[in-house]
Amino acid sequence: MLQKTKGIVLHTLKYNENSLIVEMYTSLHGRISFITNVPRSRKASVKTVLFQPLSLIELEADFKNKGKLVRIKEAKPYSPFISLPYDPYKSSIALFLAEFLYRAVREETENLPLFSYLEHSLIWLDECSTGFANFHLVFLMRLSRFLGLYPNLDHYFPGDYFDLQSGCFVSTPPQLHTSYINPEESAQLQTLIRMNYDTMHLFEMNRQQRARVLSIIIDYYRLHVHDFPALKSLDILKELFD
């Protein structure tokens, strides 16, 4: 059955000389593995350049064999990026977030609120001209809510530790594991949770602080998402935003 849907590119893999396997998160079916022919002709209806990390695509495909590779019939950008692929900082963020989403978002059912969040976030980053150094931190914190992983940040008292396994503040270090952060860093979570895309430029962090916060967030996801691997794009991201 041919259907039109919107999709966000998470990962591509060259299948053969003229084909790609493309992992996308779609508005109608959640995460889907597609296969598409990409002839080198200028008149081809599907082109390789469409499938850059986090590209926003409108596509038509036959979903009758969902669960297997779904073949794309037609594809085109529906909200072409203006700056994201060309700005080295933004493109590095996009590369990192695409890899992160590829590993963390595994739903194969419709979740329109999650799709809308991803779509809005990417368009916001593309249109923003300054003050986006904390974007990936805010994005990942808020993403956890859509994945059912949002930590319990209520009932904080100065001096508390944050237990990464249980996802809540505790007054003493856990005795059965070492996955927790100290009181000084726990206090920073209260700052992080107040950030949004419009206000995050008001919260100053240097490169080391930003890298440490990102490390904590990734550790949290690794504890709560099964088989979450090391991310290859992380080292590139850590070099930015000094």
Which H/E pattern describes the elements? Answer: EEEEEHHHEEEHHH
Mean pLDDT: 90
Distance between the termini: 50 Å
Shape: globular
Portion in strands: 15-25%
Structure description:
This protein is of the alpha+beta class. Helices cover 33% and strands 22% of the residues. The strands form two sheets. Strands 1-2-3-5-4 form a five-stranded mixed barrel. A three-stranded antiparallel sheet has the order 7-6-8. A hairpin with a 4-residue loop joins strand 6 and strand 7 (168-170). Helix 2 runs antiparallel to helix 3 and helix 3 runs parallel beside helix 5. The N and C termini lie far apart (50 Å).
Descriptive labels:
single chain; 242 residues; alpha+beta; 8 strands; 33% helix
Question: How do the strands and helices of this protein lay out in sequence?
Answer:
Layout lengths: L1 E15 L2 E8 L3 E8 L18 E7 L7 E8 L10 H17 L7 H16 L7 H12 L14 E3 L4 E3 L9 E2 L1 H12 L12 H18 L9 H5 L4
Parallel strand pairs: 3-5
Antiparallel strand pairs: 1-2, 1-4, 2-3, 4-5, 6-7, 6-8
Summed up:
This protein has helices at 88-104, 112-127, 135-146, 183-194, 207-224, 234-238, and strands at 2-16, 19-26, 30-37, 56-62, 70-77, 161-163, 168-170, 180-181.
